[in-house]
Amino acid sequence: MTENLLEIEDLSISFGGIKAVRNVNFEIRKGEILGLIGPNGAGKSTIVNLISNIYKPDKGVIRFEGKELSPKIGTAQRAKMGITRTFQTPKPFGNLNVYENIYTIALQGRSSSEADLKTKEILNKTDLSNYENFQSIKLPIEKRKFLDMARILALDPKLIMMDEVMGGLNPSEMDESFKMVKRLNAEGITILFIEHVMRAVVNVCSRLVVVNNGQFLCSGVPTDVLKRQDVIEAYLGESKNHANNK
Amino acid sequence: MKNSLNILKKLPIAVIAILMVSIPAFTDNNYIISTLVYCFVFASLAIAWNLIGGYGEQVSWCNASFVAIGAYTGMIMYKMLGISPFIAILVGTGLAFIAATLIGYGTFRLRGIYFSIATIAFGEIVRISLQFWQGLTGGAAGYYVTYTGQNFSALMFKNDVPFYYILLALLVIVILIASWFERSKIGHYLSAIKGDEDAAISLGIDSFKIKLTTFQLSAVISAAVGTFFGFFIGFIDPGTVSSLNLSVKIVVIAIIGGVGTIWGPVLGSFVINILAEGLNSMFGDVGGLSLAVYGFLLIVIVIFKPAGLISLFPKWGNNSKSARKSDDESTQNEVLP
Predict the structure, then answer these.
(1) Contact indicator for B267, B310 with CB cutoff of 8 Å
(2) Is residue A127 part of a domain?
(3) Is residue A32 part of a domain?
(4) Phi, psi at A97, each rounded to 5°
């Protein structure tokens, strides 16, 4: 049986009267690409924010490599442990060029010459070599998403939580991104893939977890999960009800 | 070939350095020497502010308070205990370090303007405290040391030439510290925080620690400069060394020169101080006119050179990553491949 990299038990958080995440349980297995899906407002990004400790849970336990993560372990510390994330909207350091964006992160725990080598290696790996001296804020959206990924690679991550990385990409850019995600996974990086684009989910994920209204709905292999009536209803519930009412 | 190019690049700095060192040999005019000492002092203070305000975009309005801490500590320790300012400087910088730690610890975990507000409050606390503790500080009447003859360890000289060299040396040290800072890991991390703090934190950078350390460094340098500045002017009072006006002047010098660069604050200090002196000698006898012209010229500079006067010398300013703005078209140095 595959070892779990991250386990979530009974995770809950409320914002005022809104229960954004309610008693969610699931695990991310070492080396897999786990898709976390659900309709808008289901709580996917909130779960990512809880794992990276941007939000502190009201209750519940998060375990990484078998050890419980105390809420005192901040976002930066978790990143250094290997728990990393991208954002829905890429966040380049706009005042730095592409090389400097990666180099700055690669400097953590490395000398300047080691960081330089690491940066060049990542630039090649992420197809950003031609953009090395380019001002990061001017990059096209696809390359900005690659840059987000490239900076994460400078941390030698164990887990990357990709929050809607396919959003805003055209089909050919999406294909490039699929390749990138699979390539990173092939290098042993575990990936939590939060996505709306079903083509992407089916293409890259080995397993899916579905959440709806902040609660765990089901999990399994993509082909099975996407056929389930409760999943279809979660996604299409409103329009189906609307159609029935008509 | 590469070495020759490097030498050529450093030539202007070498020429300026030789010029600066030799000026006292060509003039015995104490007014000129004194004006240049002011330029050195404010260049050092603006560089110190620039570390946190320019590289980190965390605007401090209390750097004058650190100057006051350094100046008062040095003079009080010398006058009351006979301790040399070269030793007292350690106490002054230590106190500034503690003050910066207290301000930063309470505010750097928060986002937004809280840090700036806290620095304004701290500046007022220091100024009012200096006025209130009359027995120790002389209160609003100020504090002074009496000239008792030439004495290097007590920073007492019959003219300003020794101060010229001491504060020039201090400026060189501060420039070297800033240059190290810009290339250091902490300088890189601060640039990332300036670029996008959320992203920086999510990528392992301890934003709180980096901002706090930078602010501590800024405070320590300001206090060290303050100690020498206090002995140079010989008489200090809360209005001179601890006012919001002085903090604003430090910020204005950095902005006019060019924030996020090493040479911007140096250029800013020379321009502002010499401009102010020049206008004062031209229009000083017409009430308020010199200040009005001074203000008008500052507005003109900010409108036409928003990145500071250092942008007139691209090789000296634009290569600094911290000087770049996210939305600055001029920084796009390559076309899309």
Answers:
(1) yes
(2) no
(3) yes
(4) -80, 180
DSSP B11-38: HHHHHHHHHHHHHHHH---HHHHHHHHH
Q: What is the reported pTM? A: 0.89
Residue A219, domain CATH = 3.40.50.300
Cα of A97 to nearest chain B Cα, Å: 8
This model of the complex carries an ipTM of 0.90
- Domain that residue A8 falls in: 4-90+159-245
Report yes or no: A102 and A152 within 8 Å, Cβ to Cβ. no
Q: B203 and A94: CB-CB below 8 Å?
A: no
The C-alpha atoms of residue B145 and residue B75 are separated, in whole angstroms, by: 7
Q: How many CB atoms lie within 10 A of CB B228?
A: 25
Please state the domain count of chain A.
Answer: 1
**Strands in A96-233 per DSSP E:** 159-163, 190-194, 207-212, 215-220
Cβ atoms of residues B257 and B268 within 8 Å: yes
Bridge partner list, A218: A210
- Structure tokens that stand for B286 in this block: 């017409």
**Tokens standing for B287?**
């009430």
For residue range A14-50, what is the model confidence (pLDDT) as tens digits?
A: 998 889 999 999 999 999 999 999 988 899 999 999 9
Distances (CA, A) of B95 to A159, B92, B235, B267: 44, 5, 21, 30
Residue A34 has φ and ψ, to the nearest 5°, of -95, 125
Chain B closest-CA separation from residue A54 CA (Å): 9
Substitution target from B201, B202, B321 for chain A, most A beta carbons within 10 A = B202
C-alpha span between B65 and B46 (Å, rounded): 14
Q: DSSP per residue over B233-285, as a string?
A: HSEE-HHHHS-HHHHHHHHHHHHHH-TTSSHHHHHHHHHHHHHHHHHHHHHTT
Mutate to test the interface with A, among B55, B188, B203 (most CBs of A within 10 A): B203
Render pLDDT for A92-143 as a digit per residue (tens, 0 to 9): 999 999 999 999 999 999 999 999 999 999 999 998 999 999 999 889 888 9
Q: Where are the domains of chain B?
A: 29-243
Q: Is residue A201 part of a domain?
A: yes
Minimal Cβ distance to B202: which of A75, A101, A108: A75
pLDDT at B325 over 90: no
Evaluate whether residue A184 is within a structural domain: yes
Greatest Cα pair distance, chain A, in angstroms, is 67
- Across the interface, do A134 and B336 touch by the CB < 8 Å criterion? yes
